[in-house]
Write a structure and sequence with these properties.
11 helices; Hydrophobic Seed Protein; alpha+beta; 11 strands; 2 domains; about 45% helix; Beta Polymerase, domain 2
């Protein structure tokens, strides 16, 4: 975490906004230790490359730069809005924006929060903390839209439910059932296997398989 804070501090000192983002924030609030820290910022990719000496442009078109600090690697992503998910997996176009709009493009409310490690402050534009307390998996905004954008999110919802023992919220569940039959070929078998492999380590794995069958994903 201390190395990741170096990135936050550097960006802030140069006049930019920067936060820990996504799954790390969720795990932090659940008191689950995680070293998988992603960083979101309003600094453009070119700026990130200039500010840090060791970087790899792993997804520069999408605003993602890998920053290496003392052999530790962190994805630094510019706040963005996504457009045209015609493939059912990735946007064809993005535009850079602010933290609130960036949060609204993410998958589930519990994954849509930001954390400022220098001020020990949570930024929550999507009521993620409330849903975390309720122990529910809920799509951000329109569940139908979220799953049409990225079909793999349907499997991910069940994986998160399996991992934390959370319920899948009603509209989110209905949307998964509605689009389950379109999972393939939008999502490769390999990506689904990756998600299932992650699920195997959870106590709720058998229940997750039953849920996938119930929802029409198997």
């Amino acid at each position: 975490m201390e190395k990741a804070k170096i990135i936050i501090n550097t960006l802030k000192k140069n006049g930019y906004t920067a936060y820990f983002a996504g799954g790390w924030v969720r795990d932090y609030l659940l008191n689950h230790k995680s070293d998988d820290i992603d960083i979101a910022t309003d600094a453009k990719p070119e700026v990130v490359e200039k500010l840090f000496s060791h970087t790899i442009p792993i997804g520069k078109a999408f605003g993602i730069i890998l920053v290496i600090i003392n052999d530790s690697k962190y994805e630094v992503a510019t706040f963005r809005e996504d457009f045209d998910y015609s493939s059912g997996r990735r946007p064809k176009k993005v535009s850079f924006t602010n933290a609130e709009i960036d949060a609204l493009r993410r998958d589930f409310t519990i994954n849509g929060m930001f954390y400022d490690p220098l001020e020990n402050k949570i930024l929550d534009y999507v009521n993620g903390k409330e849903d975390l307390n309720k122990k529910i998996i809920k799509a951000i905004g329109d569940a139908n839209k979220r799953f049409l954008e990225d079909k793999l999110r349907m499997i991910r919802a069940i994986r998160l439910s399996s991992r934390f023992g959370f319920e899948i919220e009603g509209k989110t569940k209905k949307a998964i059932i509605k689009y389950a039959s379109s999972l393939f070929p939008a999502v490769s078998i390999e990506r689904v296997v990756q998600e299932l492999t992650k699920m195997q380590q959870y106590k709720g794995f058998k229940d997750a398989l039953l849920m996938m069958f119930e929802y029409g994903l198997l």
